[in-house]
Amino acid sequence: MDWGSFVVKFGWNNRRHFLLGGMQRALANLRAAGCAAAIVDGSFVSNKEEPGDYDLAFDPVGVNGSLVDPVLRRHDDQRKAMNAKYFGDVFPWGAVACTTTRLIYREFFQRDRSGVIKGVVLLDVKLLP
After folding, report:
1. CA separation (Å) from 2 to 17, 38, 113, 117, 124?
2. What is the number of domains present in the chain?
3. How far apart are CA 16 and CA 20, in angstroms?
4. Domain containing 66: what range?
5. What is the mean pLDDT of each run of 10 residues along the chain (129 residues)?
6. Which domain of life is it from (predicted)?
7. What is the CA angle 6-10-13, rounded to 5?
């Protein structure tokens, strides 16, 4: 999905626009580092009126890690710095999301709490304005 279509589909109120601003900044940094794709999961890609944040996993293939904002690479302290700057959680999609199941984020995001497969939104980061 391109960014414009994503904003139209999921940016219907002020809270969502606020979160989209942080997401766009995070994606812009990742794109500048060479990222081509990301998936978005969680309540943000649902019909929930006031999502608390968003969950995003990016394709690390071709990404120059030295160009990625250190805040996006820092996952300690419950990602407080990341949430303060970008308003959501951002992970490389090949990182292990759950030590129990050993699922990586790309797979973890596509399952509900019961393990049933669910949808996510794939964003073409190259088309970000």
Report:
1. 16, 11, 28, 23, 6
2. 1
3. 6
4. 3-127
5. 96 98 98 98 93 96 97 87 96 92 91 86 95
6. Bacteria
7. 135
